Fold:
Amino acid sequence: MKAMLRISHNPLLIVFCLAGLLAGCGGQQSNTGSIDGQSDSLFRPDSEVSGATIYLYNKGRVTSQIISEKMFQFEQQDSLVAYKLDIDIYDSTGLVSTEVTGDSGIIREDRGLLNIYGNVVVVTDDSTRLETEYLWWDSNTDRIKTDAFVRITRGDDVITGWGLDADNRLKDFKILSQVSGTLSDPEKLQDEK
Structure:
């Protein structure tokens, strides 16, 4: 999976940022803030962007669009740390099949993994809604997982529990423990078996 970063900014702001980066590149490096004699550069982002849009690809096909209010890139750790996430996941025809929002996340581009934290809401194209505090999405398998508390709402049906393993459209899901809920038509489940 490869990602392409598109920055939507005022061109004048980009010029100021580039000038600041170039000015900061010269000069001597100090070893202040080092831990056990090692440079603290591992803990500093390689770049910082506000208002970023990232596209994730799989075999040349766009699999998702990630919009973030603020993003920090840590190249050595294959990590993008993003805040105020708004994610669209596309199906094989290029239509949005799932929308995901969350307070923050860690994107591992090379591995195709995305961890989303805080007020995570997933809404599918058939209006199924998942709410949780943490979610892990593997774009290679299109599976989402969590060990946190989950609440799934589909129409008048509400199912809650702890832990989840599901496809990204929430058509096939398994709540791992302490499952409870209310079903508007429990006989329908018997008919499907």
